[in-house]
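In practice, a research group might receive sequence data for several interacting partners and want a quick structural hypothesis before committing to experiments. The following worked case mirrors that situation: the sequences arrive first, and a predicted assembly follows.
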Amino acid sequence: MLEGKFEEASLLKKVIESIKDSVKLCNFNCSQSKGITVQAIDDSRVLLIALKIDSGSFQEFRCDRDLVLGLDLESLSKILKQGNNEDYLTIIAEDSPDSLLVVFEDKKKDRISEFSLKLMDIDSDVLTIDDMEHDCSITMPAYEFAKIARDMKTLSESLQIIITKDSVKFNAEGQIGSGSIILKPHTDMEKPDESIKIELNQPVVLTFGAKYLNDIVKATALSSTVTIKLTDKAPALFEYRLPSGYLRYYLAPKFDD
Amino acid sequence: GGVQGRLDGFFKVS
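A structural hypothesis for the assembly, expressed as C-alpha cells:
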C-alpha cells in the first residue's frame, strides 16, 4: 500500500502543472526508498522529464511494496484543482491499484474531500541517462530565465545560448529583427538566490527550440533558482530543485542545416 | 533556424 501525505497540496499541483503540457500519460514509480520517480518523454522525443519526489517532500510517506501508477496528467490536474493550495493532500493506492485515492483536508475547517482517479496501463520505454560531464553550468534566478524564454520566443522560434567564462548570452534572430540579453556572474550576499553563477570547463554555443524552453519554464513556481548544464552537441539539463528531490528536463539541441 | 535533434540519438533505451 502507498500512502503519501503532503503538508501542502500546492507542491504536487505545481509539479503536475509543470509537466502536463509536455507529457500527457506517464508512470509514477513509487517505492519506500526512492519516494516517487517519473521519467517521461514528449511525443516529439525532444524533451525528457525526470522527476524525483523524495520521501522527505512528504509529511508522511509509506510504500510497502514497489508500485507503478499509470496516470493521465490532464485528469490528475482536474482532480488536484479541487483542493486548495494550503490543504493537506494525501494520495493512497492499494498494492495492485486500479485507482488512486486523492484526499484533501482543510487545516482550519472540518472539511475532507476525496476523489478517486482511474489508473491506466501505460507502455513507456525508459531511457538510460548516464551522469554526464558537462562543459558548463549556470545557476540563475528561475523567474529571470522564464522571462528571457518567454520574451525571446516572441522574436524567434529558436534561442541560442552562448556561455563564456564571464558571461551567458541569450540570442534570438527572427523575421522582425534580433535581440540579445547578456548576463554576467555575480553573487548577491543578501539574497543568494538572486546570484548568477557560471562554472565553465569550456565555452559552449547551443541552440534550442523556444517552444520547448517555454514548456520548461512552467516549472518556475517550484524553485527560486534553475541550474542549466550544457555540453557541446548534447542535450541540455535544466534542473529545478524541490524541497527534497528535483524536476529535471533534458532538451535536445537544434543543429545547423 | 536549424534542425531539431532528438533525444534517442543520445540516450539508450533500456
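Before designing any experiment, note the following. The helical segments of chain A are 10-19, 73-80, 142-153, 210-216. The first strand of chain A starts at residue 2 and ends at 6.
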